[in-house]
Design brief:
Blueprint (H helix, E strand, L loop, with lengths): L5 H12 L4 E6 L14 H10 L3 E8 L2 H10 L4 E4 L9 H9 L4 E4 L11 H19 L4 E4 L7 H10 L3 H18 L7
Parallel strand pairs: 1-2, 2-3, 4-5
C-alpha cells in the first residue's frame, strides 16, 4: 500500500491498456489507517492524478461504515467499493450518507461465467443486487446498477475449443442468453 507505487502502477496500466486515463482507481482493501486522508499522502497523489487527467475519480474498497465515513470525510474520494450482502450489512448506513452528500451509488452484481450455457444459478447474485438498487432508488438515492460477464479464463478457452469456435464467439453467444434472462426477469440495470 505504499503511496510511492501509485503513480508507477497507474502509468504502467495506462501503457498496457493503451489509454490516456482510467475512470476510477480503487485502493483495494487497505488497512483502516489508510482511509484517513489527513494522515498519509496517498490522497494528495490521487488528487494530483485527477488534476493531470490520468484518473477521473478514486476511492477504496472497504468493509465497515466507520471506514466509509472516514474516507468520505477526509478525502476527495468519489468511489467506494463496499462489502455488502444479506449477512454483512454494516456498510448499509453509508448509503444514507451517500444520499446526504449527493453521491452516486453504484451497485455491481457479480459477473456470471459465460463459458457454459447460463442457468438460474448464474444470475442469482443479480436478484439481491437488484433489490438493493431498487430499494435505494425508492429512498431517493442516485443509483447505477451494472454488471457484465466474466469473459476470461481457462474454462472459456477449453469450452470454445471443444465447440470449434473462438472464445469471443462463445462469450457473445452466452452473454446474449444472460442479457435475455435479465430482461425477462426485469432486472433494473442501467448499463
Amino acid at each position: 500500500f505504499g503511496s510511492d507505487y501509485i503513480r508507477t502502477s497507474l502509468e504502467g496500466s495506462l501503457k498496457r491498456l493503451q489509454m490516456d486515463y482510467v475512470d476510477s482507481l480503487i485502493i483495494h482493501n487497505p488497512p483502516s489507517e489508510y482511509f484517513d486522508g489527513t494522515k498519509n499522502d496517498h490522497y494528495e497523489i490521487l488528487d494530483k492524478l485527477v488534476e493531470e487527467g490520468k484518473i477521473r475519480a478514486y476511492g477504496a474498497s472497504l468493509d465497515t461504515y466507520e471506514d466509509m465515513k472516514l474516507l468520505l470525510d477526509t478525502t476527495n474520494s468519489k468511489v467506494i467499493e463496499a462489502f455488502f450482502n444479506i449477512l454483512h450489512q454494516d456498510t448499509r448506513r453509508g448509503f444514507e450518507m451517500a444520499k446526504e452528500k449527493k453521491k452516486k451509488i453504484l451497485v455491481c452484481a457479480a459477473w456470471p461465467y459465460v463459458h457454459a450455457v447460463s442457468h438460474l444459478g448464474n444470475v442469482v447474485p443479480f436478484f439481491s443486487a437488484d433489490v438493493l438498487a431498487r430499494f435505494y432508488r425508492l429512498k431517493g438515492c442516485d443509483v447505477e446498477f451494472v454488471s457484465g460477464s466474466d469473459q476470461h479464463g481457462a474454462a472459456m478457452e477449453f469450452e470454445a475449443k471443444k465447440l470449434g469456435i473462438t472464445p469471443q464467439q462463445l462469450v457473445d453467444k452466452n452473454h446474449q442468453i444472460v442479457e435475455k434472462f435479465n430482461k425477462e426477469w426485469g432486472m433494473s440495470f442501467t448499463n
